[in-house]
Write a structure and sequence with these properties.
The complex is a heterodimer. Chain A has 16 helices and 20 strands. By secondary structure, chain A is an alpha/beta fold. In chain A, the strands form 5 sheets. In chain A, strands 1, 2, 6, 7, 8, 9 and 16 form a 7-stranded mixed sheet that branches. The chains are: A alpha/beta, B alpha+beta.
Chain lengths: ~575, ~70
């Protein structure tokens, strides 16, 4: 059967970029500058999508104070150790390159119409960054970063497919050949032929609960845009046979009740002055880890609060600007709820897994190439490239270099049987009547993660979670129903979430140790054989495979440059 | 209700329908106006509230977030 009979639309392009957030937009604009045919596929609307949808207030890393890339690698790893315990989980050459090229992004951004300087025409280096110590973070006035980036992409000549969700990648003999997608408003089935595919979607987080206690219908109140955190990039890479990294390690944090911010960076990081954490009866405590939180609870000392009321006026003025840059609606919400953000005691609810942040995602090398030929990953969906600055930089670097791969790539060959099978999977929920709504299955999956994985893990719970998830998938994935293309999008997201949770549980079962905030109550010690190791998962001949291996160390030339 | 359109102010410019990251709005061809059809998907980001040129949209926190 001819391709145009199978698809409502066939698009032929050099580079397909999945996800029009900060990484995807930078990449699209830069690749188009090299004269490539670029197609950006965005599930929402590029002008207000992704983690930067409502704006950004800070940007990191920016090379400053003579910090060398090698020192940055060390700082970067120290930060990782605080979160995830000792060890290397990522290719060290990635942070090296990220800092090495960080000043180049500042110039390139200005060319795209993105202002990197503060109102006084100077870079606003914050006293401290996420990494502490050197001033690697700058404040940016970016309430409209996304509308500006979207305009830059359109000016560059790249084609944007808005409201389009990628179903799966197309492959040909171990290389990527494009993707299939659906229009989430019309239901059109689209085939995109591409010589290279760049994944630029968000972090994966929708397998854990959102930030507010949601017992009613609003199930999407996450910290990051729920459209961008359904793990679409991770899932399509995995199903196409690419390597995913460290799906056992989640980011974690305390849920902040009444939280107004979008980035936790707003609180006290960056400004180098500390908010206060204290128990309900006034004892000041350090930011509690999962086990410390439990100790406090057992002593009857919770709730724990965080307060900034002791901080000076000018801090609060700066915070007000930061909030306005990142989430303009914050102050309206506070006012309506009857509290003053300055004096409010924010309650810290339980310590829980938040998302799959550094160091998870599609495993890439320092050229951001994944293990499948022609496949790249940047920004939050790539291992080691999380955060706004890294997204911009990864996007620019791939955009600037991908023409080298394209020029030798040859025409992609589309396997029509693969297209037909993906079409059947994609559209199946539209034909199901009296089935299961996507949100119901998604909530069941989230509950499995909360109850059987959680912060404090053990073998028995993980096995029970695995058993429940497998039977849930077997019984209910085929019954997913969608009354229109909007719900079809949610159904396909649900399929991605379930596939990734299966990997998550499998990886947790294999890590029989406690390291950082990966806590196995049944294995309280570190397993030395997992030092400096990365957990890789991939689909091999239709079966999930797991490999534990060492990530690459710094290249000799990087070490040499230092001397 | 979390997302409320005030039709006495709405001019039907379509910005909310165009921009909402979660596609909470649908376009009503007959009215030539946006309608809230997927309210349960709202994540309270405030993009519609921010971008509406007539401030015809209000985002209010429901009881379950209190």
């Amino acid at each position: 059967m001819a391709l145009d009979k199978l698809a409502d639309r066939v698009i032929d392009t050099d580079v397909m970029i999945m996800g029009g957030g900060i990484a995807g937009c930078y990449c699209a604009a830069k690749a188009a500058e090299h004269g490539l045919k670029v197609t950006l596929v965005e599930k929402s609307k590029t002008d207000r999508s992704g983690c930067g949808a409502m704006g950004e207030d800070h940007y990191e890393p920016v090379q400053c104070d003579g910090v060398t890339p090698l020192e940055f690698v060390r700082l970067w790893e120290e930060r990782q150790h605080d979160l995830n315990g000792d060890g290397r989980f990522t290719d060290r050459n990635i942070p090296y390159r990220l800092l090495d090229k960080s000043l180049w992004v500042l110039e390139e951004s200005e060319k795209l119409g993105i202002t990197m300087k503060w109102d006084d025409g100077e870079y606003y280096h914050m006293p401290s960054g996420w990494f502490g110590g050197p001033r690697l973070m700058i404040r940016v006035h970016w309430p409209d970063i996304k509308p500006k980036l979207a305009r830059a992409v359109r000016r560059s000549g790249a084609n944007i497919l808005e409201r389009t969700m990628v179903v799966d990648l197309l492959t040909d003999n171990g290389r990527v050949a494009g993707a299939t997608a659906i229009d989430t408003r019309t239901g059109e089935f689209i085939v995109i032929k591409a010589k290279a595919v760049v994944l630029a979607t968000g972090i994966f987080a929708r397998c854990y609960e959102p930030e507010e206690p949601l017992f009613y219908k609003y199930q999407m109140k996450y910290h990051w845009c729920p459209a961008s955190i359904s793990g679409d990039g991770y899932a399509v890479a995995y199903r196409a046979g690419a390597d995913l990294a460290n799906m056992d390690i989640t980011g974690w944090g305390l849920r902040i009740r009444d939280d107004l911010t979008i980035s936790y960076g707003n609180f006290d990081h960056g400004d180098g002055i500390r908010a206060k954490w204290y128990t309900w009866d006034g004892d000041e405590i350090p930011y509690p880890t999962a086990d410390k939180y439990r100790e406090i609870e057992l002593k009857g000392k919770d709730p724990i609060y965080v307060s900034q009321s002791h901080l000076p006026d000018d801090y609060h003025r700066r915070m007000q600007i930061a909030f306005t840059d990142e989430k303009a609606i914050s102050f309206k919400i506070a006012e309506e709820r009857g509290f003053n953000p300055r004096t409010h005691r924010y309650e810290l609810m339980e310590n829980h897994p938040l998302n799959f942040m550094v160091p998870t995602g599609v495993n890439v090398n320092d050229d951001f190439a994944a293990s499948l030929e022609g496949l790249y990953a940047i920004g939050d969906c790539a291992n080691g490239c999380h955060g706004c600055g890294n997204a911009a930089l990864g996007g620019l670097l791939v955009g600037d270099n991908i023409h080298r791969f394209i020029s030798g790539a040859g025409e992609p060959v589309i396997n029509q049987a693969q297209v037909a099978s993906q079409k059947q999977t994609a559209l199946a929920p539209l034909g199901v009547k009296r089935g299961t709504e996507p949100i119901e299955l998604e909530l069941s999956t989230r509950y499995i993660c909360k109850r059987y994985v959680g912060m404090l893990k053990n073998e028995g719970r993980l096995l029970e979670g695995q058993r429940r998830l497998r039977s849930l998938k077997r019984e209910f994935l085929p019954k997913l129903m969608a009354k229109d293309p909007h719900y079809l999008m949610r159904a396909l997201e649900c399929r991605n979430i379930i596939d990734l949770v299966e990997l998550h549980i499998a990886a947790c079962l294999v890590r029989k140790e406690t390291r950082g905030q990966f806590v196995r109550l049944d294995y309280p010690d570190k397993d030395p054989s997992r030092d400096n190791m990365i957990t890789i998962q991939r689909l091999e001949n239709g079966n999930p495979a797991l490999e534990i291996r060492e990530p690459p160390d710094l290249k000799p030339e990087y070490l040499k440059e230092e001397k | 209700m979390a997302t409320v359109i005030d039709y006495t102010r709405c001019i039907g410019c379509g910005k909310c329908y165009d921009l909402c990251p979660m596609d909470v709005f649908t376009w009503d061809e007959e009215m030539d106006m946006p309608v809230v059809t997927h309210e349960e998907d709202c994540w309270f980001c405030g993009v519609c509230w921010l971008e509406c040129p007539k401030r015809a949209i209000d985002i209010v926190y429901p009881a379950c977030f209190w």
